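## retry 2 of 3
previous attempt timed out at serialization; input unchanged, resubmitting
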Amino acid sequence: MKLRALIVDDEQLAREDLAYLLDRQGLVEVVGQAAHGVEALGLVEDVAPDLVFLDIQMPGMTGFEVARQLLQRPAPPGIVFVTAYDQHAVEAFQVNAVDYLLKPVDPTRLDQAVQRAARRRAADQASAASNPLTNEDLERIVQLVAERQTRRERLAVKAGDRFLLVAAEDVVFASVAGEAVTIVGNGLSGTSNYRTLDELHAHLDPNVFWRVHRSYLVNINKIKEIVPWFSRNYILRMRDAKSTEIPVSRAQTKRLRDYLRL
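## retry succeeded, writing output
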C-alpha cells in the first residue's frame, strides 16, 4: 500500500517538482498540496496523510510551527522537511522528523526518506497490532521509541558554520575538553550539541559505544588496533584519519579484556 502524502510549500513550482519526483518514486500517492501552514492543517484533517513534506520558511506559520501542531495529534503523520537552508537541521531533529531534504531535491535522497518513513510506519503498525494498551497510550509509547531510535540513528555535528546529520554507526569516537564535546567520524570532525559525554552516551547504543575513559566515548566497531600499555593497561588506536590513540581507564580494562578475550 502506498504512503499517502501531503506537500506543503508556498512555491507552486517547488510543489509540482516534488509531486513529479514522488510520482516517479512509486511508493507514495500525493493526496493534497498546500501553500501555507493554515491550509496544511486543514488538509491534514480532510485527507489524513501518512507523510507530510513540509517547507520551513513560509508566510504566516513556519514549517516548525506546523510540525509541532501535527505532533500534538493522537496519530501524527511522519514529517519530512524540504528546504533550501541547511541551518535548521538540528531543530528538525528535535521534532523527530523522518528526514531533512535540501532543495533541489535529489531523487536518491528522496527515495531514502520515503523508505525510512515506510519502515517507521510499519513499525508503528506492528506495535499497535500486538500491544494491549489503549491507542492513546500506545501512540505515546511508539512516539517515544521512535524518537529514541532516531536519535541513535543520527547525530547532529557542527562543522564550521554547518550542521551535519551523521549516522551513529559512522562515529568513531567522541571526546570532551572543557565544555565542548567533539565527535570524530569517517572524514569529519565537529562539535556536538550535547553538553556532556554522559548525555551523548544516553542517546547511543551502550553495546556499541563504550565510555573507555572519562574523556572518551568510543565505537568498539571502529577500533583498529589495541596496543598493550604499562601496568597491563591498553591504548586503543581508532579508525579515524589520524589513527587517534585513546587510553583505556583501569576501570574499563577488565571489561575490554573480557569482551575481546585478551
